[in-house]
Amino acid sequence: MAVYTEVTDEDLTAFLDQYELGQVTAFKGIAEGVENSNYILHTTTGSYILTLYEKRVRAEDLPYFVGLMEHLAGHGIDCPVPITGRDGGALRELCGRPAAIVSFLDGLSPRRARPEHCRLLGAAMARMHLAGAGFKMRRENALSLPGWRPLFESSAARAHEVQAGLAEALDSELAYLEANWPKDLPEGVIHADLFPDNVFFLGGRLSGIIDFYFACNDFFAYDLATCLNAWCFEPDDSFNVTKARLLLQSYRQVRPFSQAELEALPLLARGSALRFLLTRLYDWLHHPEGALVEPKDPLEYWKKLGFHQRARGPGDYGLD
Amino acid sequence: MAVYTEVTDEDLTAFLDQYELGQVTAFKGIAEGVENSNYILHTTTGSYILTLYEKRVRAEDLPYFVGLMEHLAGHGIDCPVPITGRDGGALRELCGRPAAIVSFLDGLSPRRARPEHCRLLGAAMARMHLAGAGFKMRRENALSLPGWRPLFESSAARAHEVQAGLAEALDSELAYLEANWPKDLPEGVIHADLFPDNVFFLGGRLSGIIDFYFACNDFFAYDLATCLNAWCFEPDDSFNVTKARLLLQSYRQVRPFSQAELEALPLLARGSALRFLLTRLYDWLHHPEGALVEPKDPLEYWKKLGFHQRARGPGDYGLD
Fold it and tell me: Which residues of chain A does B109 touch, with a Cβ-Cβ cutoff of 8 Å?
């Protein structure tokens, strides 16, 4: 829920003069994404999303994100298409911030994922992984293993405020992951934040994937692990193995995964759970008191982490 | 900037089953209004706004607001049209809150009003005042004279935190207004919150007036006074008499006002400045520390109040 930068009608008019999108008819800040300011833009040629990139997104990463959306859209993936201006560029400046206009994607994000959503997601994610193959740019995953310990250390001293003994438990989990993190799984471009609010469905199909601002080069199976966490647990924290099976089976029908990837899933899911636990813990401990945006509960991911710690193998995720 | 209530895709689908709006294609929370949760809704039949009324709006007032929009729209005023469901009603419940769908209005709110905006506003406000004549319901202005002293008393003890001596000065202003507030000016339905963010312009015309959730029965000239405050001061707190003249002259070309109304303007403008000063002061003193939504500066209205206290008559507003 955002809109941090206010764009005046004069700013907008001058900005849109650099495009050929027709006349603007409406412009409203939308409560989408927490990192950037997003506006829905109606013009005489259609609907668009205008994004101003706020300080949590590094400007030097933007050509990767925008280039990736262009690449994926050009390869048949339903994702926002960056709109180029008269100068041929898609990335420019508005109100002192980097900004871009992308196409508007129809569809609704499921508040609670159903098994059918997971089945559609698996296939779409696999197609996205394959489509990323020819993308020439590269971006490290800033929130993978090397990033976790500094993040942990920025919250460790106060972790007990969230749960007694949490710092010690996280320290030990980190040590385990550092010792066992895989080195040579198949990799490519991953989304890295494929939560239900970043996926749209419409009329029984997956109509779009948005918010590529954590995208990076990492293990494909790490994207799967993140989705197991984000899509396959029920509100009571139980793991829905049916959803997991549909996700993984539909994925591997499009991009078969190796035995090594399959076996690494429990470990990658532990890592991904820890990653979201750590960012949530940081936000929980550092958000201004009384802020309108309630930080998300880090302990949700503590419970998910526990499930993966106890998993004995791929069978626990519905695969034989 | 709002969206307090999250509406799931299942909630939305069940809600829309009560309407004949076609299939939903997109649904996004928008950062509009501070009192309610607002969503932009795209369906196969067009664009709409879905509003969930949050606790700051009294449920018993909703039939007045919704009925008024229906009435005004039916009389040619460019305002949101409440959409009726299959049962013929426009007001129903969603996620435990009263909710309504209204038509989507094209246009942009000016961040900084230009003289031409003021000219268009005056005429549109007068047309709205005339169009309200046949509206049968009645709602007192809860934020007029009788409401100000209780509001003042809820902030008086801490008013010095904002400015030394503020409580005493406000007390004395209140006493003056209580002694001199007019009793028999022409009245009818007024908007009562006609700030630039509630008015849309498009292609050189005023394309819509929104947010009728302070509308009430009160002096017509009080709406004018509120607009003098909201539209005719510059960012440096100076009063732009050209804008005021355009506002008032274009108004009276549509609805000529009486000498009594004209002479009451400075006093009504003091009252309206005090009203917004008091609600801003309350929000300033009572907002949660570090909240994302910065409260508006109450002293902006202290300066506007000072201008009207010094005004000698309608000539100071550009009229002879």
Answer: 9
A289·B288 Cβ contact <8 A? yes
Q: Is residue A120 in some structural domain?
A: yes
Question: Which of chain A's residues have a Cβ under 8 Å away from the Cβ of B108?
Answer: 9, 12, 24, 26-27
A132 and A246 part of one domain: yes
The residues in B 88-147 lying below 8 A from A, measured between CB atoms, are 104-112
- Domain of residue B271 covers 115-317
Cα distance between residue B213 and residue A233, in whole Å: 41
ipTM, 2 dp: 0.86
Report the mean per-residue pLDDT for chain B: 94
Q: Which residue in B267, B271, B262, B300 sits closest to B283, CA to CA? A: B300
- The verdict on B91 and B214 lying in the same domain is no
pLDDT of amino acid A1: 40
Q: Which of A4, A28, A202 to mutate to test the interface with B (most CBs of B within 10 A)?
A: A28
The SS3 call for residue B74 is helix
- For the segment B70-83, the average pLDDT, to the nearest whole number, is 97
Q: What's the alpha-carbon Rg for chain B, to the nearest Å?
A: 20
Based on the domain organization, do B123 and B89 belong to the same domain?
A: no
Q: What is the pLDDT of residues B228-248, one digit of tens each?
A: 999 999 999 999 999 999 999
- pLDDT tens figures, A22-46: 999 999 999 876 678 999 999 999 9
Q: How far is A242 from chain B (nearest CA, A)?
A: 21
| Average pLDDT across chain A, whole number | 94
B126 with B261, same domain: the answer is yes
CATH number of the domain at B135, please.
Answer: 3.90.1200.10
**B230 Cα distance to chain centroid:** 10
User: pTM for this structure?
Assistant: 0.89
List pLDDT tens digits, range A91-141: 999 999 999 999 999 999 998 899 999 999 999 999 999 999 999 999 999
Check whether residue A80 and residue A202 sit in a common domain. no
Closest Cα in chain A, distance from residue B100 (Å):
19
A191 in a domain, yes or no?
A: yes
- Could you tell me the CA-to-CA distances from A275 to A4, A142, A192, A221 in Å, in that order? 26, 11, 11, 15
Question: How buried is residue A204: exposed, middle or buried, by Cβ count under 10 Å (0-12/13-18/19+)?
Answer: exposed
Q: Do A10 and B112 touch (CB under 8 A)?
A: yes
| φ and ψ of A118, to 5 deg | -65, -40
Residues A77 and A150 in one domain: no
Say if residue B288's pLDDT is above 80: no
**What is the count of structural domains for chain A?**
2
Taking an 8 Å cut-off on Cβ atoms, the answer to whether B290 and A288 are in contact is yes
Residue type, B225: A
B1 belongs to a structural domain: no
Both B137 and B250 in a single domain? yes
Strand order in the sheet with B46-52: A92-94, A97-103, A46-52, A37-43, A24-30, B24-30, B37-43, B46-52, B97-103, B92-94
Residue B2 lies inside a defined structural domain of this protein? no
Same domain membership, residue A27 and residue A161: no
